[in-house]
Amino acid sequence: MAEALARHYGHEAESAGTHPGSDVAPNSLSVLEELGVSTQGLRPKSVDDIETEGWDMIISMGCGVECPMLPIAEDLNVDLCMENVWNGFFYSPIELRDFVDSFDSDKLSVYLDIGNLIGYQQYPPHWIELLNSRIKRVQIKDFQENFDWTGSFSFCDIGAGDVPWKETIAALNSIQYESTIIAEMLPWDETILSRTSVAMDQLFNFK
Questions:
Q1: CATH 3.30.70.100: does it fit domain 2-49?
Q2: Tens digits of per-residue pLDDT, 104-162?
Q3: What angle do CA 134, 138, 139 make, to 5 degrees?
Q4: How buried is 190 (Cβ within 10 angstroms: 0-12 exposed, 13-18 middle, 19+ buried)?
């Protein structure tokens, strides 16, 4: 996908891996076609098959290779959770789902930050539906979009922003999520803890 998207936007690019499959993932082809990006000539390639000299930038992602932390997590029987942070590493739940599944370990899972999805104009219930049982921890916050020249977001109290809480909570219930829910609240003030506690009790029926 990275190669196709880069070429679509006028760049020269090659994409390869240490353990290439026999065919391009069907989900990747579907997403590219939906975006109107050409898939002509795409094929899995080994890093040994491409020229590594002369590029302005080489990005190493480590997809599909063994994670040195997984054996430790499995020995200790703890979950190793990846958060969808704001670095653009995963723009869709399909990519994140396939990445997690590529390691074939139930100890590698997802730490889903509901609020971070809003920053990419994503719909949290869709992510929850597709990631399903891979979600082992959930973090929440809320944002309000600023309709100004910057198009930025600002933190606000939970329930006062643009997160579709009713639909999001229904999606979590549909996958029978029963683990922790952690609130990340900024900026701090003396009443934020009590306000957040009340909001979470109301949204999630904690009391």
A1: no
A2: 888 999 999 999 898 777 899 999 999 999 999 999 999 888 776 666 778 899 999 99
A3: 145
A4: exposed
Write the CATH number of the domain with boundaries 70-204.
3.20.20.150
Interatomic CA distance for residues 78 and 75, integer angstroms: 8
For 206, the token pair is: 């904690």
Coil, strand, or helix at residue 21? coil
How far is residue 58's CA from residue 124's CA, in Å, rounded to a whole number?
Answer: 32
pTM of the model: 0.67
Between CA 117 and CA 119 the distance in angstroms is: 5
Residue among 88, 108, 107 at smallest CA distance from 99: 108
DSSP string, 65-92: SPPTTHHHHHHHT--EEEE--TT-S-SS
Number of Cβ within a 10 Å radius of residue 81:
19
Domain-by-domain residue ranges, the chain? 2-49, 70-204
Distance of alpha carbon 46 from alpha carbon 146, whole angstroms: 45
Element of type H or E holding 111: strand 108-113
CA angle 186, 134, 61 (to 5 degrees): 80
